[in-house]
């Protein structure tokens, strides 16, 4: 199958192109993004991604894997390999995103409008970047969006859980010790309930 990358016709297999693209991009990409970049139909991209995911999973001793998070695809180091890497080789989340990420985990499912109240208009940029990194999911909820964390988010923060309730509880237990909010505690914690935990603005629904 021949595809078009920009203005150049490529005779490389689609799986090969996808693997190289995801590896080189360093961020998560949607099927639409990949379709526009590589010149293939979206259904061809989807089929090849699923096939590539299986191919990489079967590689004996492989260090990488292909994951789909929030409708976007990315290549990342396997968790059992990542824990053995030296600190210098690990990708760190930009500091400007840390507070937004922690707040989302702490309040999830968190209305985007609430995050804007806490962090100002820059919150929209933070949400977009976190989504591009595959760290959060955004779902429309009325006039705002509901923000929740992903499995990749838990791995990045060293959280041992992926279930949203457990992630939320874990972050609440870490806040005071880690000092994540740098003086924002009074604002963030003003909705504390009888159990001593912040009450989410939106009900936590089973997915």
Could you characterize what this model shows?
The chain is α+β, with helices and mostly antiparallel strands. The chain has two domains: 3-86, Orthogonal Bundle (Arc Repressor Mutant, subunit A); 95-188, Winged helix-like DNA-binding domain superfamily/Winged helix DNA-binding domain (Arc Repressor Mutant, subunit A), CATH 1.10.10. The chain is built from ten helices and eight strands. The chain has a three-stranded antiparallel sheet. It has a three-stranded antiparallel sheet with strand order 6-8-7. Strands 1-2 form a two-stranded antiparallel sheet. The chain starts with a strand and ends in a 19-residue tail after the last helix. The model is unreliable at 184-207 (pLDDT under 50).
Layout of secondary structure:
Blueprint: E1 3-5, E2 8-10, H1 14-25, E3 29-30, H2 31-38, H3 42-58, E4 64-69, E5 72-77, H4 79-82, H5 95-107, E6 110-111, H6 112-119, H7 122-132, E7 136-141, E8 144-149, H8 151-157, H9 164-178, H10 185-188
Antiparallel strand pairs: 1-2, 3-5, 4-5, 6-8, 7-8
Helix pairs in contact: 1-3, 2-3, 5-7, 5-9, 6-7
